[in-house]
Write a structure and sequence with these properties.
- The structure is a homodimer of 333-residue chains.
- With 333 residues, chain A is an alpha+beta fold.
- Chain A has helices at 5-15, 63-81, 100-116, 168-177, 186-196, 202-211, 224-235, 259-265, 281-287; strands spanning 23-25, 32-34, 42-51, 84-94, 120-128, 134-143, 159-163, 214-219, 238-242, 272-276, 295-302, 308-311, 317-319.
- The first copy, chain A, has 9 helices and 13 strands.
- Chains A and B meet through helix 1, strand 3, strand 4, helix 3 and strand 5 of A and helix 1, strand 3, strand 4, helix 3 and strand 5 of B.
């Protein structure tokens, strides 16, 4: 079995250390954090690569939508740090059969979605590839008042929350795999949109970081069952979630999916997963603005590092299996 | 014939405009320039993508060397702005047959070369690809005293210079293509090193930017005959170069190459091309430190925008043909 992405990342993280005092956080979070000398704010930098057939399928989308999704994924990483998007670069490799029109529409999608969240395209690179499209984006944001939320700030007793609904994007992917990408059913349309054109939770991330309530945060890109252990590992804690509390996408059952399975293991929700001190979660919930995406309490952080439990029907407690997406052990599209 | 990379970039540059006042320079130079609010320095951001079979051949190098070259290419873009390297992210896609060892050695090369120039790895992304390795790096540097040199500052009458020697990397590529990658001849070793493990001209770039002598600058990545027109286009001028003045790699003739052709059209020299006001070039040459890579006067900028002339043997003046590397019309490796 190949080494997991987690393991390899950990290895690289331990192998290289940065010593520049302007660096507040290097490898190992959703994004790196820099404090440019004398700058009013911290600057946050994140990079993501999308490879055709692994991360997307060119037949299942149009270039404009692919551009929109590509930038959304990166802005979601900024949101997870509580940072406000500002700038990004994009490097794009396309095989010779991809027409200029495709490249331009891709950039149109990228820039229109970026602009919605205040991010400007500032540069990049165009390259050729032999067969598949490859997209690499680096996004840069600002942490207002230098308030950044890391993955590592959680403690036992903190209450775990997620924004929005989980599993909706995975339901959309299932529809695409089954050739139902043109379905007009409104629930299908919602799932397809969640998969093709997700919205990063920038407003929520900013509010959560500024509020001072949040101890740790990350975005959900590979599925809760993969990402929750990452948050807990960074914070040196365990967790217990209540499956019945998960904000599932119930309509997934229309297409023969178990909504709970999708909520736990489906990737690319790009919702925020975060924690609030147990003593403060009441005041937090009162303060959280109704205009932001809904939040749901899904569990608590626990003392035993790395022990991630799920409480299911009839109060049965089980270890949560990591069944989300791993670039090195899964095939997705 | 496919649209050239130049044309497509120009189209994208004109299509999208950024309005953030913290952005000093967006698409269209070697790197973008940001002034974070209150920051002491400007920050410079550049991205480059390298695709196997187009930009490199995995058989012709070892992962450590490929890592070294990948970061060097990006640092060269920072050097071209006069910026000092600080941080970078790397996104890497590898096919399943590439072992973890390869990935680690690639990162080792990246970080050891980055460290030589003061740049720390701060994050990135690991991904799978079906067949080819793809590398995407974003590097961030600081412009000390906010002194940045753009491509656009040149005027007619400015004297053109290059650092180092031109065509050495192209000679190395030729040796690799002909299966002579293990040659022990010392000139071959020099050419192979120039191709596999180039040094970005960071020290020279910094000095040139701080000196105040330089009106415009870029790095030579696609060959002088491709890059000089870019510098001139950005500055709205033409140029006339003297072929006999070019600092060619004369030993290329040992392998049946014309050193002048390599100097004009060979890519990946990663030397700096820059201009100095005609009235100041004497004092500039006196001030330029002997400890930095040698510089050579190769010509002047002229009034007629876009007219790039080469003066050859017997004082014959010809238009310089663009025969360097274009990602969209050439095949390199």
């Amino acid at each position: 079995m190949p080494t997991s992405e987690n393991k390899l990342l950990k290895l690289l993280q331990n192998r290289y250390s940065a010593r520049n005092p302007q660096l507040k956080k290097g490898i190992g979070d959703d994004a790196a954090v820099i404090h440019p000398r004398n700058a009013a704010e911290f600057w946050v930098v994140t990079s993501d690569m999308l490879v055709e057939t692994v991360d997307f399928n060119r037949e299942w989308t149009v270039p404009r939508m692919l551009g929109r999704k590509s930038i959304a994924i990166n802005l979601s990483d900024l949101a997870a740090m509580g940072a406000t998007p500002r700038f990004y670069t994009v490097s794009l490799a396309t095989p010779a059969e991809v027409p200029d029109r495709w490249i331009i529409e891709f950039h149109d999608g990228l820039t229109e979605k970026g602009a919605l969240f205040g991010a400007d395209l500032i540069g990049g690179d165009l390259s050729r590839s032999e067969k598949h499209v490859v997209i690499s984006i680096t996004a840069v944001g600002e942490s207002l008042n230098r308030k950044v939320v890391y993955r590592s700030g959680g403690s036992a007793g903190d209450v775990l929350y997620v924004t929005g609904e989980l599993g909706c994007s995975a339901a959309g992917l299932k529809l695409l795999r089954e050739g139902l990408g043109r379905s007009r059913n409104r629930f299908a349309a919602k799932a397809l949109r969640a998969h093709r054109d997700p919205d990063p939770r920038c407003d929520a991330g900013l509010w959560l970081a500024q509020s001072g309530f949040v101890s740790c945060m990350m975005d959900l890109s590979d599925g809760l069952s993969m990402d929750l252990p990452r948050l807990c590992a960074a914070s040196g804690v365990g967790a217990e979630i209540r499956v019945s509390n998960l904000p599932v996408f119930a309509k997934a059952s229309l297409w023969g999916c178990d909504p709970v399975v999708l909520a736990l293991n489906g990737g690319e929700d790009f919702e925020l997963l975060f924690a609030v001190r147990g003593s403060r979660n009441g005041s937090f919930e009162k303060a959280y603005p109704a205009t932001l995406p809904k939040i749901t309490r899904i569990g608590v952080m626990t003392r035993e590092a790395g022990k991630i439990m799920a409480v299911g029907p009839n109060e049965i407690r089980r270890r949560l299996a990591e069944r989300g997406f791993d670039h090195f052990t899964s095939r997705k599209q």
